[in-house]
């Protein structure tokens, strides 16, 4: 007889060899959890190599999910449950596990050879080194093979279904439904129904194992979270970003053109958008990063909503093209899904170290708007904003996502189509000036007095033929100009145009109103900072928080906000890039950086400690 | 947008002067670019298009100033990137006739990658490569088409670079249309431009262009009445390849120049630009090297192959036909696993 115990939250990590299907297992567990109505947040963590040598530490792939009956902000600092498919997975993840946590371990892989491969002299399951944990040794592979004895699948295929056995077992432990996964498996193996049925049988065998094995005396329930009314789905940042681009095309009525070159962790945006041709989305997989940006710029000139997506090394290559877009004053959305650098760095690991490059990584005075989404689902909204700014101001806009939110997932309350903003644009179709002889002419750099944007006269428009280029242009006519005064004027005008971009005010969350310390973040640190702030307030500590989604220009009220606090703590996954900008823009502010570059998101615990320390030390 | 160029039958016929822009032309006196500009301006009315439906895209270099002097839409972009920018435009705008103007440094050195990939994809672009075998705008360094031993500011003891043969490169890149012409031969230039414009897909045209300042007389051997008959081969589709008292015959795996009277008429190669196997056009391109000893001009190759831009558009058009995008977006968002909180 099993006991059912209620929990309010759990963090589970699935870990195995990169060939063990841990990402799929995690995705399915996430889908089941979402279906149940828990709030959740996920963190995949996998090696850059597609198949690192089997059973080795570099080959370990993991997927962490945090789910709860309240709203949560992060994938969780420390897992409470670890599913370890082999000795390498145990060794690589054990130090993260909470003391007293639960380990489900696949004993079949704990052979002398596999133990030696990762440096275990003795079997940790037997030598007492795991006494601080609740260990469930389960022969996952042989149980799976046994369960599939009646199926016409090879032993190898049967063994490969052990991840579904593990999923079934964990689904039983946490009372998750499995019907959707069964449907998913039937769809995934449509052409191989025997494999589909074998996987489903493995899933069910895992569930039944939990129910019958005496080792699992307790199962858990986590009631649904009380989220705002609406329809939800689970979404990763990269998918939300791609859908945001698609939605921007719908909202503007323009064809979308994506120029991209494959790069981790941005390629999924290209994959996703290449499926959305029905929305008038054209994707060009270019010969290199430069061509990807160039083709997008060419399409922008032709009147498309043009986008190019990449990660740091690719953005560096696009830099010259972005500068040309600044000079031509054409709309171009550039997405940088940041990863750990410099150079190849750690392509599958997250970092926020491209902020200064986004701001200044171009030649000449080449200001652009810079935005950063704060969570996976915010990637959708931020793209609509990026499109709005690019189209309104005829400028490149850089969006700084990162590996953490690109691959992480969370529930997303689906927007109502009626709330989609109107991003329609007016192309120039008529002459806009009169020359000295009184004849009507077209001035390609005659600006809108409000936005300073120039007219967008696309090729094919009768009578408005004009030439533009990277050489400095006379304001108004757009003719080549080496006039010193004109150049100074144009540099200042381009800067004023970006400085004048309308962005919403910075919202401050300071519920007690007596905080002396403000924590100010940007981008993907939103979740961990929020969780840390919440924990501090529960302890009675006063702290204010604000988060910058608009980094250039910053919200108009930023100075006023910062002035109200004695100290501004800026946690960043870099060595202080926002801090540098703040010290330049707001020299009176006492900026305290909290910086780590480990390729991993902050934990809320470490932020809680760091913030508390600043508050205590006044 | 229709997938054809919009020809207005009732529009007044344009003349060369209609394609002149208000900008003062600023190349060095005697530059071959003047002749090419005049030839292009006199050719453009033949397209039968309105000026707004023509777009010129250039990179950086002397030749890349070209778009400023044409009363069409034009973009003077960045070094080497014109084929990439033009690809984006051509893919998204089937109603435009898109031309790329580039030079030997722009197309073959800094922009080599974009050139070969535009040709490989067969994007509907007309690429005019002005080859003067020197860097002019940066004041006289050797280029990727300069011969070994060329003395320049950056090679005072002679260049040790091995040059590209631009046509061999284009053919190796799967180009469907490859031609060569001369800045000084207005009629031939005009004829080649017409053939390029008529070709559906990437048309690659190398134009030998004299730089009077840094590489004067580079192509003199092809222009001087005393030497040209010996060195210039005018390719004509369907005609035997003869020049002066020479002829071209097959030899081993390639072609060879021989005295015409030393071979039987039946042995002389009859030029066919539509030969599917690029090896023939490649062999033609190898008849001349840096020394220009036997230099064919005209259309080397002109074959049909699906164009990238059209294929891309077809996929999008077929997928998007009849789709209510807002409704489809709502369905996309609500597709898959969703749940409702009441």
UniProtKB/TrEMBL annotation, chain A:
- Entry's Gene3D superfamilies? 3.40.50.920, 3.40.50.970, Pyruvate-ferredoxin oxidoreductase, PFOR, domain III (3.40.920.10)
Q: Specify the domain of life of the species encoding this protein.
A: Bacteria
| Domain Pyruvate/ketoisovalerate oxidoreductase catalytic per the UniProt entry, residue ranges | 19-206
Residue span(s) of domain Pyruvate flavodoxin/ferredoxin oxidoreductase pyrimidine binding: 254-473
Q: Which InterPro entries does this chain map to?
A: 2-oxoacid/accept_OxRdtase_asu (IPR022367), PFOR_II (IPR033412), Pyruvate:ferred/Flavod_OxRd (IPR050722), Pyrv/ketoisovalerate_OxRed_cat (IPR019752), Pyrv_Fd/Flavodoxin_OxRdtase_N (IPR002880), Pyrv_flavodox_OxRed_cen (IPR002869), THDP-binding (IPR029061), Transketo_C/PFOR_II (IPR009014)
Q: Which GO terms describe its biological process?
A: response to oxidative stress
Any idea which GO molecular function terms this record carries? magnesium ion binding; oxidoreductase activity, acting on the aldehyde or oxo group of donors
Q: Outline the extent of the Pyruvate:ferredoxin oxidoreductase core domain.
A: 515-581
> SUPFAM superfamilies in the record, alphabetically?
Pyruvate-ferredoxin oxidoreductase, PFOR, domain III, Thiamin diphosphate-binding fold (THDP-binding), TK C-terminal domain-like
What UniProt keywords apply to this chain's record, in alphabetical order? Oxidoreductase
Q: Which residues cross the membrane?
A: none
**Name by which UniProt lists this protein:** 2-oxoglutarate ferredoxin oxidoreductase subunit alpha
Q: Which organism is it from?
A: Glycomyces sambucus
Which lineage is the organism of this entry classified under, starting from the top rank? Bacteria, Bacillati, Actinomycetota, Actinomycetes, Glycomycetales
Automatic annotation (TrEMBL), chain B:
- Full protein name: 2-oxoglutarate ferredoxin oxidoreductase subunit beta
Report domain Thiamine pyrophosphate enzyme TPP-binding positions: 60-207
Q: Which biological process annotations from GO are given for this protein? A: cellular respiration
Q: What InterPro entries does this protein's entry cite?
A: 2-oxoacid:Fd_oxidoreductase (IPR051457), THDP-binding (IPR029061), TPP_enzyme_TPP-bd (IPR011766)
Lineage top rank: taxon: Bacteria
Kindly list the organism's lineage: Bacteria, Bacillati, Actinomycetota, Actinomycetes, Glycomycetales
Which GO molecular function annotation, any one, does this entry have? magnesium ion binding
CDD domains, A to Z = TPP_OGFOR
Q: What PANTHER family does the record tag this protein with?
A: 2-OXOGLUTARATE OXIDOREDUCTASE SUBUNIT KORB, 2-OXOGLUTARATE OXIDOREDUCTASE SUBUNIT KORB-RELATED
Q: Which UniProt keywords apply?
A: Oxidoreductase
Entry keyword annotation includes Lipid biosynthesis: no
**Which species is listed as the source?**
Glycomyces sambucus
């Amino acid at each position: 007889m099993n006991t059912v115990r209620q929990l309010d939250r759990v963090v589970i990590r699935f870990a195995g060899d990169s060939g063990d299907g841990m990402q799929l297992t995690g995705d399915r567990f996430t889908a089941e959890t979402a279906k149940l109505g828990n709030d959740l947040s996920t963190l995949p963590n996998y090696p850059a190599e597609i198949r690192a040598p089997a059973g080795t530490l570099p080959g370990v792939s993991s997927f962490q999910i945090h789910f709860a009956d309240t709203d949560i902000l992060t994938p969780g600092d420390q897992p409470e449950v670890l599913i370890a498919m082999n000795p390498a997975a145990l060794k690589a993840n054990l130090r993260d596990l909470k003391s007293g946590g639960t380990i489900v371990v696949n004993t079949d892989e704990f052979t002398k050879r596999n133990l030696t491969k990762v440096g275990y002299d003795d079997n940790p399951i037997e030598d007492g080194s795991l006494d601080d944990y609740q260990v469930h040794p389960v022969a996952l592979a042989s149980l799976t093979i046994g369960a599939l004895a009646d199926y016409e699948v090879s032993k190898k295929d049967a063994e490969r279904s052990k991840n579904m056995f593990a999923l079934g077992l964990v689904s039983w432990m946490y009372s998750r439904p499995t019907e959707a996964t069964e449907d998913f498996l039937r769809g995934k193996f449509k052409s191989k129904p025997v494999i589909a049925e074998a996987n489903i049988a493995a899933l069910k065998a895992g569930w039944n194992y939990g129910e019958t094995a005496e080792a699992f005396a307790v199962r858990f329930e986590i009631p649904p979270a009380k989220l705002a009314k609406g329809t939800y789905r689970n979404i990763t940042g990269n998918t939300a970003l791609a859908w945001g681009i698609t939605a921007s095309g719908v909202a503007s009525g323009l064809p979308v053109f994506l120029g991209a070159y494959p790069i981790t962790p941005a390629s999924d945006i290209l994959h996703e958008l290449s499926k959305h041709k029905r929305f008038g989305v054209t994707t060009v997989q270019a010969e290199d990063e430069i061509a990807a940006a160039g083709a997008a710029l060419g399409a922008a000139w032709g009147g498309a909503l043009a986008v190019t997506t990449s990660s740091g090394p690719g953005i560096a290559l696009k830099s010259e093209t972005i500068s040309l877009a600044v000079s031509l004053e054409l709309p171009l959305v550039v997405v940088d899904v940041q990863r750990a650098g410099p150079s190849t760095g750690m392509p599958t690991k997250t970092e926020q170290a491209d902020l200064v490059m986004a701001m200044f990584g171009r030649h000449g005075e080449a200001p652009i708007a810079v935005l950063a989404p704060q969570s996976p689902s915010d990637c959708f909204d931020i793209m609509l904003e990026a499109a709005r700014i690019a189209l309104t101001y005829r400028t490149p806009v850089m969006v700084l996502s990162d590996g953490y939110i690109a691959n992480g997932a969370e529930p997303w309350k689906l927007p109502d189509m009626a709330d989609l903003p109107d991003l329609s644009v007016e192309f120039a179709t008529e002459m806009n000036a009169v020359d000295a002889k009184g004849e009507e002419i077209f001035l390609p750099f005659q600006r809108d007095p409000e936005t300073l944007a120039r007219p967008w006269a696309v090729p094919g428009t009768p009578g408005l033929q004009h030439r533009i280029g990277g050489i400095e242009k006379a304001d108004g006519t757009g003719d080549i100009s080496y006039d010193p005064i004109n150049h100074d004027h144009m540099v200042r005008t381009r800067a004023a145009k970006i400085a004048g971009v309308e962005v919403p005010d910075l919202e401050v969350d300071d519920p007690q109103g007596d905080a002396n310390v403000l924590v100010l973040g940007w981008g993907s640190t939103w979740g961990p900072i929020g969780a840390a702030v919440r924990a501090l307030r529960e302890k009675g500590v006063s702290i204010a928080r604000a988060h910058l989604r608009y980094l250039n220009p910053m919200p108009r009220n930023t100075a006023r906000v910062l002035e109200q606090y004695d100290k501004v703590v800026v946690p960043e996954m870099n060595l202080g890039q926002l801090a540098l900008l703040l010290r330049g823009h707001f020299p009176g502010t006492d900026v305290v950086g909290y910086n780590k570059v480990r390729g991993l998101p902050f934990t809320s615990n470490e932020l809680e400690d760091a913030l508390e320390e600043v508050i205590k030390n006044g | 947008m229709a997938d054809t160029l919009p020809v207005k039958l009732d529009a007044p016929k344009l003349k060369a002067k209609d394609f002149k822009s208000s900008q003062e032309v600023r190349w060095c006196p005697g530059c071959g670019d003047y002749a090419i500009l005049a030839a292009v301006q006199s050719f453009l009315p033949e397209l039968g298009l309105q000026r707004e439906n023509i777009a010129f895209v250039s990179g950086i270099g002397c030749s890349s100033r070209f778009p400023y002097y044409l009363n069409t839409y034009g973009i003077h972009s960045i070094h080497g990137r014109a084929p990439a920018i033009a690809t984006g435009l051509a893919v998204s705008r089937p109603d435009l006739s898109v031309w790329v103007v580039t030079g030997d440094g722009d197309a073959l050195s800094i922009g080599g990658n974009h050139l070969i990939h535009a040709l490989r994809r067969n994007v509907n672009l007309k690429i005019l490569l002005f080859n003067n075998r020197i860097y002019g705008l940066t004041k006289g360094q050797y280029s990727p088409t300069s011969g070994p031993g060329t003395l320049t500011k950056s090679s005072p003891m002679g260049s040790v670079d091995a040059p590209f043969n631009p046509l061999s490169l284009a053919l190796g890149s799967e180009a469907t249309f490859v031609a060569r012409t001369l800045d000084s031969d207005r009629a031939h230039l005009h004829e080649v431009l017409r053939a390029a414009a008529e070709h559906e897909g990437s048309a690659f045209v190398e134009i030998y262009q004299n730089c009077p300042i840094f590489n004067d007389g580079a192509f003199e051997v092809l222009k001087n009445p005393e030497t040209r008959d010996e060195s210039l081969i005018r390719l004509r589709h369907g005609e035997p390849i003869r020049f002066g008292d020479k002829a071209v015959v097959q030899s081993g795996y390639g072609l060879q120049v021989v005295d015409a009277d030393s071979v039987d008429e039946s042995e002389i190669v009859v030029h066919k630009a539509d030969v599917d196997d690029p090896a023939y056009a490649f062999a033609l391109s190898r008849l001349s090297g840096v020394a220009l000893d036997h230099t064919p001009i005209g259309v080397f190759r002109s074959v049909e192959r699906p164009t990238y831009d059209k294929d891309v558009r077809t996929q999008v058009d077929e997928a998007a036909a009849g789709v209510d995008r807002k409704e489809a977006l709502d369905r996309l968002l609500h597709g898959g696993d969703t749940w409702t909180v009441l």
